[in-house]
Write a structure and sequence with these properties.
The protein is of the alpha+beta class. The chain has one domain: Sufe protein. Chain: A, CATH 3.90.1010. Helix content is 46%, strand content 18%. It contains five helices and three strands, in the order H-E-E-E-H-H-H-H. The chain has a three-stranded antiparallel sheet with strand order 1-2-3, with helices on one face. A hairpin with a 2-residue loop joins strand 2 and strand 3 (52-61). The longest helix has 18 residues, at 120-137. It is globular. It starts with a helix and ends with a helix.
Length: 139
């Protein structure tokens, strides 16, 4: 991916993130996730109906990578089944960790395919939150 396009996508999703802001609704699964190495501290909430992710929101303090990754990940997961979401998350983690993955499946999430090692944790933070919420559904 062209570095200018990569920067543009990240910056746009940082400045204008989708579904930023939490709502009051007890039907959502909620989780907090934070980084040990930087300021990232985000709250996520997700609603699933009939095995489909119908809504995800997030809020908190985070760097450009975590915020933009949250926004792009949310757009990629909305409307997906739990199984589809888990597949996207698995491929996303593989990409971040420089393993083979399905590039077509990730769409704009591919902007994080060449991160500096110290930024990988920032990009993974939103996926950790979503995995926690999906795991909480299985209990």
């Amino acid at each position: 991916m062209d570095s200018n396009l990569r920067r543009e996508i990240i910056l746009d999703n940082y400045q204008n993130p989708v579904n930023r802001g939490l709502i009051e609704d007890d039907s959502y699964v909620k989780v907090n996730t934070n980084s040990d190495s930087c300021i990232d501290n985000l709250d996520f909430m997700m609603k699933i109906e009939n095995d489909k992710i119908v809504d995800i929101h997030f809020d908190g303090e985070a760097c450009a990578i975590s915020t933009s990754a949250s926004s792009i990940l949310i757009r990629n997961l909305l409307g997906k089944s739990v199984l589809e979401a888990k597949n996207i998350l698995e491929n996303y983690k593989k990409m971040i960790n420089d393993l083979d993955y399905d590039k077509e499946l990730l769409g704009e999430l591919n902007v994080y395919d060449e991160l500096q090692p110290n930024r990988k944790n920032c990009a993974l933070l939103p996926s950790v939150a979503v995995e926690k919420m999906l795991g909480g559904l299985e209990k």
